[in-house]
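quick one
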Amino acid sequence: MRDMKFDTIAVQGAHKAKDNRHCIPVPIYQTTAFDFDNVQYAADLFDLKASGDIYTRISNPTTQVLEERIAALEGGIGALAVSSGQAATMISVLNIAKAGDDIVASSTLYGGTFNLFNSTLRKLGINTIFVDGEKPEDYEKVITEKTKCIFTEMIGNPKLNIVDVEEIAKVAHRHGIPLIIDNTVPSPYLFQPFMWGADIVVHSLTKYISGHGNSMGGIIVDSGKFDWKKSGKFPELVEPDPSYHGLSYTETFKESAFIVKARGQLLRDFGSCISPFNAYLTLLGLETLHLRMQRVSDTALKVAKYLQNHEKIAWVNYPALSDNAYYPLVKKYLPKGASSIVSFGIKGGAKAGVKFIEKVKLLIHATNIGDSRSIITYPALTTHRQLNDEQLRACGISDDFMRLSVGLEDVDDIIEDINQALN
Ligand SMILES: Cc1ncc(COP(=O)(O)O)c(C=O)c1O
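structure w/ pyridoxal-5'-phosphate:
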């Protein structure tokens, strides 16, 4: 599958009609459990000696195609699909960190991830050190002996800051820890973190990969390149797991240790599995990922340029604008485009912002990105309203901050709607 080009894998990867009763799209295996056939086979499945399906909480053939397809698109060795992006982030961290450990994360993360790290993980005894700056040195300064990973978003939602992944991966590896990248906003079409040294990727499948605003999902992808044993900091991947017949993940599964543990231990225990139907819908969306990502990136750039010249607009942020602070990193990492999100503020501040939201007709006022429809969000009033002023500033959000995720409509209609609402 690795030899095929991206677009071909997106459409046909990991599925052959002839092996599936000649069914051309991936069939939906809407079942809870699987017939064991014979006793020895059942025992081998439970001992992880045979590969196959036991129960849909742990694996399912429809979901497996999604996992294999996305692993191939990211250039990883394996993937685990789960019920949401939040579940993917949570499992990716809990797979390597426990009470008493630290993780280091960018302060400009998606609000839900920020909350997970700042509140819920702290209650479990995992301390997140948030990095305010974006330079690799900023990350390095706060790493301690207790730090188990660096976690950051490739394109921050909603600040739209871009990280120098290659340099941050070097920092992580100097300290024997992995770099986890949330690659939701670029999707693997625009950016593949493993090519630049990242070790683990997470996605909210809910956004661009499924692409039609109709199903929740998340996925963790393993590059298979991080040496858990050599690092010496991850005994739970190396030493026998009493909850899994005393097996050592690194010994038994070698470079797949991380992703097998995430499934066999954490998905088993937390139960945050994706439904086969959502996996099916996500596969359907994935078939056009390459077409949609290019289109929304092109549209977003046109809209950003339009806003830049509009007299009622106070400021515009889109990383692919040539005067944007992150433009050099866009040239390095995102040559095909910078995804669908444009942020801006209207002259007249928050009051004008509320009026604008009330006047749009085509743009949908909701909290989502990566839908086929254009969506406008007012983060200070919605997605980020649980944060205090200081936290909002750290996330890069002002009270006039609008987030627009452009969809697949005609760009002229999107611009016309913005213009009439501004007027
Ligand atoms: C960058 C990013 N990561 C993760 C998530 C969480 O994904 P989900 O809503 O599928 O749980 C989101 C949701 O908006 C997001 O934007």
